[in-house]
Write a sequence for this structure.
């Protein structure tokens, strides 16, 4: 049951990330949109703080977090892009 719950959360996270990527692609000034989102979403700010604490490279931070959570980052990215 816990596995199903964790998978559901993962899929919800993927759906949210897809929606955010689509929104960022559709705006004229992505940096301004990102700054707005950081101000409105404490979880997103926390994620950006995590990236900055890991050298400022989102890819490195993502792989580090995936490793910590026991998630295959390449499989996650495939699901995100599909």
């Amino acid at each position: 049951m816990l596995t199903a719950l964790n998978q559901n959360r993962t899929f919800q996270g993927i759906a949210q990330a897809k929606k955010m990527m689509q929104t960022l692609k559709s705006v004229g000034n992505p940096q301004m949109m990102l700054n707005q989102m950081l101000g409105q979403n404490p979880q997103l700010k926390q994620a950006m703080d995590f990236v900055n604490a890991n050298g400022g490279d989102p890819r490195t931070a993502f792989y580090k977090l995936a490793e910590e959570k026991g998630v295959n980052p390449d499989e996650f990215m495939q699901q995100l892009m599909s």
